[in-house]
Design goal:
heterotrimer, A mainly alpha, B alpha/beta, C alpha+beta, A: mainly alpha, three-stranded antiparallel β-sheet, 13 strands, B: eight-stranded mixed β-sheet, 12 helices, about 35% helix, globular, disordered N terminus
Chain lengths: ~550, ~450, ~325
């Protein structure tokens, strides 16, 4: 992928653009914006693992069950700005840190992680310990350590080495203390007065470097990025865009985009085994299938947005995807061979777009049957950024869900929602959309009938009619909120909170740029990371701002 | 509890929990009612507090016992308490039932499956869906009595989902649950467990070194405090408390194995059911996990590894199912029609009965451990509760609660009390008083009360 | 059979006409086989699709009176009784004769009362004491079918109408692929499997017809690749007939044919007795049991050299490739 070229010359593709053709002009038309408040952002479990791998080696086995991440406003990336560490969580972090340190300084990996040798392997060696602590500590804390931070750990290494009679065991204790420090577990976003305008606050350059690398790589900044940050050069706009381009070009960027979409599409539920289907109704839904289903969607997204740099809106109409034999059997298409391979759904077949994938159809369904309401809610909330209020407490669902009765299809049963005034307001928004997908059962397999009655998947999405899921995907692609919602979601993920009112104009601007680029993913990231919203702040988050 | 309660330990417990009043009232927790030491074996037997949660309530007309007071008659849905215990008497004799105690809303939204637990466990209205307004009752009690044990509290869930928890450190910080018997075993009885049967105790030098690691980390946190906003300072406070918790754990480890006659290392539960596969929600699998976790818990209590625990059998959105049923308990409570002859939802109700059987299993397990003159159950107070009474319309009036055990002689078990629409916080207040907290009133607005259920307090 | 299944079949057939002729073999794959429902095939996957309705066996084993194999600790009092035996009259005779050139055997009645159904192996399965433990063998075979040790696929060719069609073909094959198995332990439909590359393991093609949803075809011979535990051999069944009830995506019934005593020796007799007498019988006893063979009269030796046998089978739809 040639991101640098893209960044420099999208004009070749578009008629009228505001995007500069020569170099990236950061403020090119962007409204002046004060970003919202900053806060500590705890590493998600994926970020924790990825960061450890990047700093201490990919061979390290990182314990998977640490403290669960919290989803807030639909994103784990936002929840991370509000969680702390519970007692049992900290116990687990400490145990994980000990296990990681043991591997990192064990005989196999020690050579890669330690560039010096102690004068004696059975006792303390302050200077070698210091070298390790300073180097690795910088990568873990994402900034150069202060002298007292280093000295403290050197002392720990020394006393432990002496007590245990082993230099490396002593150094492991020092490494453990780095790994359980809040400076590692939390991304600290620090602010300083903007030298160009003293009344504004901007993020420090190491904070920007951290934001950038966790957005694009879902992991810690590498040495080059940290160097650029600590030399003061990063916040020079040209450098920032260039670093962003470098990060996007790296193979590590795939992990970053996967992390974003996994978060947005709630794939964590599949990882934690929380999407379960009745074995009598849906024996095909094995663990293998669930994992493959998630992977199919992520591969499709990466292929579409990164490898081929296509229009994001077409994710909901594309027939290109990837399958395994296990998926082939659920899609009822022949697909042999041993593993993954590209696949194109039939041109006149019933499937196109991400919403027809097993992954999303399974996540938005019950263990025993599909759910038009869950699916409609997903489209409205996740893809169109429209809030649906919670149901009233005393609602009687029995008519709606009695599948054995006279009303045999979901459409018939959900009809009760819209004839009942108490329900219609919200359900009119959700059910019709979800009913478009009724041809896909609770695991996404295709069916033409329910209880012996033909399924009617027609409907209307905010004015655009469709006959089936294919048409629904097209209506979604053409929906005016699709692009802005994606912009908004990525923005929230990048800054770790909902936007404040002062950022609305910036969001509109970013969305315009996104649209002008033909909804190219790279363009959105490019514009986002040089924007005021990403680089400035109103201050540290105060307790009163957090609604109770 | 250990023979020596070092002064240092007591003070640390105080600072960590924030409780200021130390001294006699608290020590009462682990002396018998005469204030003299102590039970058989030389060491005092601690009083433990726990909660036991089942989801989706019950059928009020069939659950509330027909008679009141001691020796109450068992209702249809409480027949599970009819079991005879090896230690004598029936489970019913050890369980008090509270019917007709309401969660008040005062016009606030009734968040389905949220408002019930929030109000029952904090005394406050739920401020938002899924949120509590304050730390939960188990955390309040843990702050008082959790400072003496290796683990301040243990959260366990048989549901297979770590996010299922009703234990809140603060309004929004949740204590995740352990779901894997194997992991619980390793955590409690793994390499750091000081086994009383293991002969002479030799402290592991790493424990002290780990403490030094933690002091470095605390200094990191202190430096950060001055650089962040007030919201982050609260979060760093919580982080600090958690670090302190681990330090305390290491202190406890350094002081040697517990001196309790009924303490021995638990048996390795072996690999989890369907190792590597998802935790299934069918009743058999859930019961199996529940029993395995309950088993480990009793061993942990016997060895005074903790005195506060939370066990979830099924969560508010109860996913319990049985083979051949293509839906779940929770879904049934909404979908299933009421059988006109029976007067209730038959398929959904099977899970109410199953939940009560599981509760009986749990109580029975505690009663099967001899302690002092009686059993471990006598030295426990287990607060059973659900998120709703009648689940179909998400009713939170008459929220069902029960208390099992005698709290070391501080409560009289086996009584049915009718609440007559009194706020359910009366039960929570009673629980806290029984556990020795210096509290006269609890809750706010219509949930406020200063009237404990004195019939059960000794 | 239901209308929608018929539509499905027709769609499949159309799909073939439309797509099979223009197979685009660029890069990764061929035009797929049946698209399942609606429309023509997508593109992707490896292997060339075969034209015809494909099935994979999900269950295969000896025919017992009651398919609940878990109730067989002791087969001594087990027999088919009034329910009859689902099978074929393979030798065209009712009962066996005592004349030289015939093989003495016990015939059974079909469920509808028709006599002459041949199932000579039943005496071996039922009476030979060690074979009463055959619930073990049966479950070994049944798992072998599911896990690739002895997986079998089948094609129905020339099917225009799944309910009544007077000219169809049946062919069965070994496959080296393992079928997909679901969370209920059963084989899943719509998987993709390749027929065995060695055509030794392709049966001869049987012709037959479908009447009221029941397909009968034969005769045919087949060699099935058999690689279960210590036995790596071919299972050769000759002069077979097959009867299948066709359902919505399923085919179930019986396969009846001839299994030589030499084969039975190679697959059961010798391996089990040579391995610490795991079978609980000795070779001499086994050979004695083989004397009850009821078919395959060999004029030179004057011996009956094979047993008539009946296997039950259940199959689900699958995509087959070369």
């Amino acid at each position: 992928m040639t991101h640098n070229q893209r960044g420099r010359c999208i004009a070749a593709l578009l008629a009228v653009v505001a995007v500069a053709c020569a170099g990236s002009d950061t403020s090119g038309g962007a409204p002046a914006t004060e970003g919202g408040p900053v806060a500590l952002r705890r590493l998600t479990s994926q970020q924790y693992t990825q960061s450890i791998h990047d700093v201490l080696g990919n061979d390290i086995v990182v314990p998977s069950r640490i403290e669960p991440d919290a989803r807030l406003e639909g994103l784990l990336g936002v929840g991370a700005s509000f969680v702390s560490v519970t007692p049992s969580g900290f116990e687990k972090y400490e145990a994980a840190a000990t296990a990681i340190a043991e591997q990192a300084l064990g005989s196999e990996l020690r050579g890669a992680n330690l560039s010096c040798e102690p004068s004696s392997a059975s006792g303390a060696d302050d200077s070698c310990a210091r070298e390790f602590i300073a180097t690795i500590g910088r990568r873990l804390f994402r900034r150069t350590l202060a002298e007292d931070e280093i000295a403290r750990r050197v002392a720990i290494a020394a006393s432990s080495a002496t007590e245990l009679g082993d230099f490396y065991a002593g150094l492991e204790m020092a490494l453990t203390s780095l790994l359980v420090s809040p400076n590692f577990l939390f991304r600290v976003e620090e602010i300083e007065p903007d030298p160009a305008d003293g009344s504004r606050l901007r993020l420090t350059s190491t904070s920007v470097a951290t934001r950038l690398s966790y957005l694009i790589w879902n992991s810690t900044p590498d040495d080059e990025l940290l160097d650029a940050a600590e030399s003061g050069a990063l916040l020079n706009t040209g450098n920032l865009a260039a670093q962003a381009a470098r990060l996007l070009d790296s193979p590590k960027a795939e992990a970053g985009i996967r992390a974003f979409f996994s978060d947005l599409l709630t794939f964590r539920r599949i990882d934690e085994g929380l999407v379960r289907k009745s074995p009598t109704e849906f024996p095909a839904f094995t663990l293998t299938l669930a994992g493959d289903a998630k992977e199919q969607t992520l591969r499709t997204i990466v292929d579409h947005l990164v490898t081929n740099e296509l229009d994001l809106r077409e994710l909901y109409t594309t027939r290109s995807t990837f399958l395994t034999p296990s998926l082939g059997s659920v899609y009822a298409v022949p697909f042999g061979g041993g593993g993954w391979g590209p696949y194109e759904f039939a041109e006149d077949g019933p499937r196109a777009g991400l919403l027809s994938h097993v992954s999303l159809m399974s996540i938005t369904a019950h263990p025993g049957r599909s759910s038009a309401t869950l699916r409609g809610k997903f489209v409205r909330e996740v893809l169109l950024c429209q809030d649906i209020p919670d149901p009233p407490a005393n609602v009687d669902f029995s008519i709606v869900e009695n599948t054995g009765g006279e009303l045999r299809t979901a459409r018939e049963r959900l009809g009760e929602h819209v004839t009942n005034d108490a329900c219609a307001g919200c359900h009119q928004l959700m059910d019709p959309i979800g009913l478009a997908f009724e041809n896909f059962d609770a695991i996404g397999a295709y069916r033409t009938q329910e209880n012996g009655v033909d399924i009617d998947a027609s409907g209307n999405l905010d004015g655009q009619s469709y006959d089936d899921a294919i048409g629904m995907g097209q209506a979604l692609r053409d929906h005016e909120s699709l692009g802005p919602c994606m912009t908004r979601n990525l923005y929230r993920y990048a800054v770790g909170r909902n936007p404040v009112s002062g950022e609305q104009a910036l969001l509109t601007f970013l969305d315009d740029r996104f649209a002008a680029s033909g909804y190219r993913w790279g363009s959105l990231i490019d514009a986002l990371v040089v924007s005021d919203g990403f680089l400035t702040a109103s201050g540290q988050r105060e307790a009163e701002e957090v609604a109770q | 509890m250990k023979k020596q309660v070092s002064r240092r330990t007591i003070l640390r417990g105080a600072v960590a929990g924030g409780a200021v009043g130390m001294g006699l009232p608290l020590l009462d927790c682990f002396l018998n009612e005469n204030g003299t030491a102590l039970a058989q074996g030389g060491g005092p037997i601690p009083v433990r507090f726990g909660t036991w949660f089942w989801g989706c309530g019950m059928n009020p007309a069939r659950w509330a016992p027909p008679t009141e007071g001691l020796g109450y008659e068992l209702s249809v849905e409480l027949q599970a308490l009819d079991r005879t215990l090896d230690s004598g008497g029936k489970i019913r004799d050890h369980v008090s039932v509270f019917s007709g105690f309401d969660v008040k809303l005062d016009g606030n939204p009734n968040y389905p499956h949220g408002s019930g637990p929030a109000s029952n466990l904090t005394g406050l209205f739920a401020p938002a869906d899924g949120d509590f307004g304050a730390p939960s009752i188990d955390v309040l009690i843990a702050r008082e009595i959790g400072g003496f044990t290796r683990f301040r509290s243990l959260q366990l869930s048989a549901t297979g989902n770590r996010n299922h928890t009703y234990s809140r450190e603060s309004a929004t910080i949740r204590n995740a649950s352990e779901i894997s018997p194997m992991e619980v075993y390793t955590r409690i009885f793994g390499p750091d467990f000081a086994d009383p049967a293991a002969g002479e105790f030799v402290p592991n030098p790493r424990w002290t070194l780990r403490q030094s690691v933690l002091s470095a980390v605390k200094e990191d946190r202190d430096k950060l405090m001055s650089r962040v906003g007030t919201h982050d300072q609260q979060r760093l406070d919580q982080y600090f408390t958690s670090v302190r918790q681990l330090e305390q754990m290491l202190d406890v480890l350094l002081s040697g194995p517990p001196d309790l006659p009924s303490c021995r290392r638990a048996d390795d539960p072996g690999p989890d059911i369907l190792e590597g596969e998802v935790f299934q929600n069918d009743l058999d699998s859930v019961n199996q996990r529940h029993r395995a976790l309950a088993d480990l818990l009793t061993f942990a209590l016997a060895c005074d590894q903790t005195r506060v625990f939370n066990m979830i059998f099924s969560s508010g959105i109860s996913e319990l199912t049985v083979p051949g049923l293509n839906t779940s308990h929770h879904q049934l409570t909404h979908d299933e029609s009421i059988d006109t002859e029976l007067g209730y939802q038959p398929k959904a109700t099977q899970f109410v009965l199953a939940s009560m059987e599981a509760w009986a299993d749990f109580v029975e397990r505690l009663a099967s451990v001899p302690e002092g003159d009686g059993t471990m159950l006598d030295n426990c107070l287990v607060f059973a509760n659900s998120d709703l009474s009648y689940a179909k319309p998400h009713d939170v009036r008459g929220l069902p609660t029960m208390i099992a055990g005698s709290a070391g002689g501080r409560i009289t078990p086996g009584i049915h009390i009718k609440g007559n629409t009194d706020p359910v916080t009366r039960v929570g207040l009673t629980v806290q008083q029984a556990m020795g907290l210096p509290i006269d009133a609890w809750g706010e607005n219509s949930l406020q009360t200063s009237l404990p259920v004195s019939e059960i307090l000794v | 059979m239901k209308n929608n299944s018929l539509k499905w079949v027709l769609a499949v057939a159309m799909g073939f006409v439309a797509s099979a002729c223009g197979s685009t073999n660029e890069g990764a794959g061929a035009t797929g086989g049946s698209a399942g429902t609606g429309g023509s095939a997508g593109t992707g996957g490896t292997g060339n699709a075969r034209e015809a309705l494909g099935y994979v066996f999900g269950d295969f084993g000896f025919l017992y009176p009651d398919m609940n194999l878990e109730t067989y600790p002791n087969m001594e009092n087990t027999d088919f009784g009034e329910e009859g035996v689902r099978g074929f009259d393979l030798d065209g005779q009712i009962g066996g004769g005592t004349d030289p050139g015939t093989c003495l055997h016990e015939d059974f009645d079909a469920p509808d009362g028709t006599p002459g159904i041949d199932y000579g192996l039943w005496s071996f399965l039922r009476q030979f004491e060690p074979m009463r433990q055959s619930q073990l063998i049966d479950s070994v075979i049944s798992s072998a079918v599911k896990n690739g040790e002895m997986s079998i696929v089948m094609e129905l060719g020339g099917v225009d109408d799944m309910v009544n069609d007077d000219e169809v073909t049946v062919q069965i094959f070994s496959t080296q692929d393992s079928p997909l198995v679901g969370t209920d332990g059963q084989v899943l439909p719509n998987g993709t499997l390749a027929v065995h590359p060695d055509s030794t393991y392709h049966s001869t093609i049987a012709t037959g017809a479908i009447v009221n949803g029941v397909l009968v075809a034969g005769p045919f011979d087949v060699s099935l690749k058999f690689n279960i535990q210590i036995v790596d051999a071919d299972m050769q069944l000759t002069d077979n007939w097959i009867r299948l009830t066709l359902g919505n995506g399923t085919a179930s019934g019986i396969l009846s044919g001839h299994w030589s005593t030499a084969q039975i020796d190679e697959i059961i007799g010798t391996p089990t007795t040579q391995n610490g007498n795991a079978a609980g019988f000795d070779y001499t006893e086994f050979l004695a049991a083989m004397e009850a063979a009821d078919a395959g009269y060999d004029e030179e030796s004057g011996e009956c050299t094979s047993f008539t046998t009946i296997f039950r089978l259940e199959a689900v739809t699958a995509f087959l490739t070369d």
